[in-house]
Amino acid sequence: MIDGNHLTIEQTVAVAFDPTIEVRLDVAARQKVIQAQQAVQNFIQDGQVVYGVTTGFGAFKDRIIPKEDVPQLQKNILMSHAAGVGPLLDTPTVRAMMLIRANTLAKGHSGIREQTLELLIAMLNRGVHPLVPSQGSLGASGDLAPLAHMALPLIGLGEAEYRGKRMPGKQALQRAGLVPAQLAAKEGLALTNGTTMMTALGVLAVHEAERLACTADIAGCLSLEALHGTLRAFDARIHAARPHPRQIECAAFLRELLSGSTFTRPDDPLNVQDAYTLRCIPQVHGAVRDAIAYARWVIEIELNAATDNPLIFFDSQGNAEVISGGNFHGEPIAIAMDYLGIALTELGNISERRLTRLTDESSNRETLPAFLIQHGGLNSGFMLLQYTAAALASENKVLSHPASADTIPSSANIEDHVSMGPIAARKARQIAANVERILALELLSASQGIDFRRRILGAQARLGKGTAPVYELIRQQIPFLEQDDIMYPHIETVREMIAAGKVQEVALAALKTPPD
Question: How far is CA 263 from the centre of its chain?
């Protein structure tokens, strides 16, 4: 049920990936939508000059449009602004866009008609998914080109995917039992002006980042056990002395994951502390958690924001006023997504360094054989896993350059500062995908290291309460490698476990289990 005020990240993710979830418009929100559209009609009848309703767009803001041409003006904005290029957005992103846009319009500040909004919702519910190119938005005035592509099928134009087939927008509507809309005043602008695509990408990036942060904690703990590391650096007193909340939370979570482990090292006067990549997990992962929490905060606000222009407001007597502003500017999202991308890059960097320590016997005090394999030389073992992780980490360093640091004028220098938020959000998701693969490489390598350690410690050796089920999950599908094997299927198997949330799921489930 959407009302413009209560949409969550979790709901958006659910609708994005599950087409069986039905979306409906709240009754009170419906009345606000009707009231705002009536105000638009009154503006036209009174001859009031309103940007995008009785004027052109952008640099044409001073061109007055005759009353009889107002409907054509709204159709024209969809057609002329559908100038996106590049790879198409995946279906979950498009579904998230449709839901977010519908929720924005449900706030009752945009002036769209009830029946047009209901058609957008019906398209979402019946699986009519517009084809939306991923490139072409500057992030102010919002995501104009992507939203124009999203809206074209509403009026029987553009292209859409329906039941797995690509077809003209009008045909997709017909097959779904829907009739194209004839746009009225303000509707074209209401559909195309706003931060919808970058917010949709941001929702999915935050969702992915939260899963990766938890997985990284688990992978770090499994690596620490494989490397005979110590828990001393996770002592609660250390983190209370530097009270960053998420650093404290991370250290506590690591202690839970490693509870009961006999693979860790007790106090040793000859080896009092571990390398930074093990010792500083709470400090690094905690800082990443801070960035993710900030991104979540920004996106949750944006999900329930009116981001088009102009907006319609009503006083206590019901009198309408239209105000031009800049809520379409994506700067809050741009900076948050850049911050998130930088943080996830660091999550990948530290994971790659732990993986290197697992494979380099000179770095792990010969705790493990070179490249985690017997008969090195004949066998290369896990050597190339570190190469791949290094390549992904290096790629992320390039991708983490902030898009929000750039701007370029548009619309004859009227729209002279833009956010580049869509680029920041797309990059954040690319970085997340790379980190997912780096963590898969680390988990695969740490599991191999655990088996070597078990040979030293004996069959009675126990992994931590949270790491043991993750190791077992991996070993259910991937055996210990006695000799060289084709590696990419194993890497993909673990990546799929991470992507499906299974690594996180089994670890958290074990922590909830009461002790024997």
Answer: 35
